[in-house]
Amino acid sequence: MPEPKTKNQTSEPTVDPSALEKARRDKLKRWREEYDLQPYGQRVDGLESLSTARARFDEAAETLWQSRQEQSDSDGTPEDPRQRARVAGRCIQHRAMGKLVFLVLRDDSGDLQVSLSKQSLDATQFKLASKLDYGDIVVAEGPVGKTKRGEICIWADRFELHSKSLAPPPEKYHGLTDIETRYRQRYVDMYMNPEVMQVFQLRSRILHEIRNFMNGRGFLEVETPMMQSLPGGAAARPFTTHHNALDIDLFMRIAPELYLKRLLVGGMPRVYEINRNFRNEGIDRQHNPEFTMMEMYEAFSDIEGMFELQESLFKRLAECATDGQGHVVQWDGLEIDYGRPFERIRYGDLFKRGTGIDMSDRDGVKAAAIESGIENAASIDHWLLVNMLFEEKGETAIDPARPTFVTHFPSAISPLSRPDPDEPDLALRGELFIAGMELSNSYTELNDPDVQLAKFTEQLAGEDDESSTFKSLDEDFINALRVGMPPAGGMGLGIDRLVMLMTGCTSIRDVILFPLLKPEGGDPDEKA
Predict the structure, then answer these.
(1) pTM
(2) What residues does each domain of the chain span?
(3) Which class in CATH covers the domain with range 192-342+402-511?
(4) What are 335-382's pLDDT values in tens digits?
């Protein structure tokens, strides 16, 4: 996320926030006593956004209004031809100049000046406007015109306070720039830094566009359990919880895959789910323990169908991110063109490019793993070592500016994917990498129950005690395959990383409204 712009002012005196809050409380008390003020508002109908109100400005009407004012006698009040607007917003700038008060209000659509004249308001309304604090939420109504300096504004003839802000905003010149504070106080971050609001508005549009795309292709959006008796569908450490009424331990889901495949068995030919997954693992710029993912499955499709779907989807989302201006999106100095066909490279070729050895060379792989400092490399399964080295050296060999499908993963590390009939040691599996990040995992799904059971059993047998604790054999899923699942293609797409790419954000925390943080007062958070 772009850093908020700040002015380099260091000479401002530091003011005790508690003293500022006390001053605001004292002011509120006086207002209640003197004006019988109800400072926390009520329903207001007919409101429109500040951007809509700004668009109501009509230069011809403004010129006619100025002409009528010049021609009217001192006692007459000419008819005002300007359009009226009723708006609500938070005060972010305030300037009182005798019989005039100028405010800048902010809402989710932008900023707009409100100008208030003493002769256009009753005495109480004008006094409130004169003494307003930064952060107060107000409603203003009046004709949309211009100031003498040419600034579009609302010349208010109605003004009301609807929420008194007691907490002072961040320091005037520097704003809210501390990263940790911005994540903890997202509610302040969003109104102090408009680009933050824009990121989350675009995130919402992206999700809407994804749903439109999937629904347009005949997919049915579904919801599957988030609390599961067995963690499955991915190799990850789950969060655990306990259901008191049933007196059973449950796991927060690490992936919805096995439930979505059950729906194919049940007769739903195309399904998808956009929802949260939970993995009790590390936190960094690309990982948050609670994250959003889309998984989808299509009967009688395969990995090629999944590749085509993703290329079409990313092309459409790039158009959304650029407001229809094309398919090239800027990200951290890269120009990524989603309109070009995505690159493809085999896992083994990429492994050799990064390490200089063939992935089937057991002695070479073990030596490279030891040289790389992989702990217990001498005793770890060969294919697990291959994947560790691939993640360290193979992935970095991918051009970050070219969306790339890495294909033909080893079957040994792809237990839910169908083996390639021509190369059984390799799986019909592909991962999409963009800008150095893994975005998705695609498969030609394995639907042979006997082969699936053998793969699950083999995987569990190859793990040490600690690792196997967090992997399980889902007998009911095997039974579902025995009932019969049609051949299918499947894909899981990380929504948060996708949003990072489309918004220009380089940390996953910048695209999650409330990312996980340690409680205040503890050890410093890991830097995201």
Answers:
(1) 0.90
(2) 17-169, 192-342+402-511
(3) alpha beta
(4) 999 999 999 999 999 999 999 999 999 999 999 999 999 999 999 999
